[in-house]
Amino acid sequence: MPRRLRAALAVCAAAGLAGAALATAPASAATDALSVQYRTSATGATADQSEPWFEVVNTGSTTVPLSDLKLRYYFKSDGPAVSYRFACSWAVKGCGNITGTFGTLASPTATADRYLEIGFTSGAGSLAPGQNTGDMQLRFYRADWQTLTQSDDYSFNGAQTTYANWGKVTLQRAGAVVWGTAPAGNDPSPSPSPSPSSSTSTPPTDPNAPALFDDFSYTASSDPAVQQHGWTVKSGQGGPGVAGATWSPADITFSNSVMNMRLTTDGTAAGTKETELQTTARKFKNGTYAARVKFDDTPTGGPDGDHVNQTFFTFTPLNAPMDPDYSEQDFEYLPNGGWGEQSNIMYTTSWETYNPDPWNAVNTHTENRASYDGWHDLQITIDNSAITYYIDGQVFGVHGEPYLPETQQWIDFNHWLIDLNGQTSSTPRSYDEQVDYVYYVKDQVLTPAQVAAKVAGYRTAGTAFTDTVPAG
């Protein structure tokens, strides 16, 4: 999704000079040969969110498990009652392998009374000599989404917009400080390590939990069974996408238990036909959502480059601007970019709410700039603490409060055009998004392997459709 607008106030040159003086490691760092590089993409004295980005570098001669490390970024809170939320936008090591917690300093100073502590799960792996973690694009913001002040934060340097050593953050290894200088009187003490991951074990599931499974064994979008099985095929006009485009039921077709959703355009609104299939009942909330989806980078004829959006998502209605009961969890693949992106990008986005006019979005997202052309297993799990997105069995992103859904949701697939700015040709061209199956189980957090086993079980039993999920 497009980034929220950020303030562009310049930081003073003196702050930049002070930061440069502290950009070398203390003597203790030489022993463990670990360093921290920092940059920020939110440079203003005030901002809607602070964006400290990091790389941890191993310049030593031994391999270092990342789970041994804790990094602290120090800041001055905007008030004693203000709370903050952590988010990871993207990381080479995977956002699901990075943790962020907040702490309070025992000896507050004029520039710091809190800290953000970054840790790593065992899934982040190790750093061999000469390696670094790669980009960790992190951020934090006020829980009430008010503007925060960062110019008075100890670890902030708005002038550092490219990665360089930064001594105003600390790095601990097994509780000992190996890099950086904390605010005066606040040498970090060892913090308890998270409990060992139980990812090697399989959590128990209820075999009788209410579930929906659809193998899409229909003859056409007009097949009466589509409606009988609780699906609504969108028609007519209306958002999202290009004003004046048409939602075309005839362009949703079925073959060999695979649904094909075709998007066609000639570069004009009148010549654009989009597709959408949505559950009629709004009855899905916590649990596991899964689908096998084939994304399409290349049109079936004509020039490429249109700003296409190919999706699998869940959502509730927005009944008023900034409706607190709104929620949405998205997989959105943009094969040709859009929203300011220039090429392939996958977004997983969790929404708390938004105001359409003037635009104000309260959401968080994880992104990866890569091609996802072809078949992929997509999965979302939601419980009372986290929304976890998986692609092909691997954690793609993890989002927490305040983005958890408050009310029952719909399940939706749609295929639409963001705008007409991708390219200007009038030659008709089509893109296909295909769906092999959709599965949901209520109040159960399943692993990708468990989802695969459930789907295989349905197919072995010859079950093309079942829905035991009660009405919301």
From TrEMBL:
Residues 180-216 are annotated as: Disordered. Residues 143-449 form the GH16 domain. Pfam families: CBM_3. InterPro entries: Beta-glucanase-like, CBM2/CBM3_carb-bd_dom_sf, CBM3, CBM3_sf, ConA-like_dom_sf. The keyword Ribosomal protein does not apply. PROSITE patterns: CBM3 (PS51172), GH16_2 (PS51762). Residues 1-29 form the signal peptide. Keywords: Signal. Residues 30-184 form the CBM3 domain. This is Cellulose binding domain-containing protein. It comes from Kitasatospora paranensis.
